[in-house]
Amino acid sequence: MLWLLRRPTGFIPLGISLTLLLFIFEDFMRFGRQSDEGTAAHLFQIFMPLQAIVIALFAISWLPRNRIPALQVLTLQCGAALTVLAVVYFLGL
C-alpha cells in the first residue's frame, strides 16, 4: 500500500485535503463565521472537484491492477475528503 501512496495520484488527494483543512481552520480562527465567502471557501470550491478527479484517476488506473492495496489507498483518500466536508459542515461555513 505504501508504494501506491508514493505515486502522484496516491498522495495528491491527501495533500489537497490537508491543505484545505489548514486553510479552513486558519480562516475560521482569524475571521470566524463570515456571511460572505472568503478565500478558504473559494479554494474549497476549486480544489474539492479537482480532488475528486484525481481520486477517480487513481481508481481507474490502479483498481484493475492491484485491487486490495488500491482499495486501502482509496479508503484513505475518501476518508480525507469526507473529513474536509465534515469540518465545513460542522463549522457552518
Task: Describe this entry's structure for a reader.
This protein is mainly α and 93 residues long. The protein has one domain. Helices cover 83% and strands 0% of the residues. It has helices spanning 2-5, 8-31, 39-62, 67-91. Helix 2 (8-31) runs antiparallel to helix 3 (39-62) and helix 3 (39-62) packs antiparallel against helix 4. The protein is elongated. The termini are far apart. The relative contact order is 0.20.
What is this structure's SSE topology?
Blueprint: H1 2-5, H2 8-31, H3 39-62, H4 67-91
Count of discrete structural domains: 1
Low-confidence runs (pLDDT<50, min 5 residues)?
A: none
Residue share in β-strands? under 5%
Number of strands: 0
Radius of gyration: 15 Å
Task: Give the termini separation.
Answer: 34 Å
The biggest sheet amounts to: none
Portion of residues within helices: over 70%
Oligomer: single chain
What is the helix tally?
Answer: 4
Name the average pLDDT.
88
* Shape label: elongated
Following the backbone from N to C, one meets helices and strands in this order, namely HHHH
Class derived from helix and strand content? mainly alpha
Concise synopsis of the structure shown:
The chain is an all-alpha fold and 93 residues long.
List keywords for this structure.
93 residues, mainly alpha, 83% helix
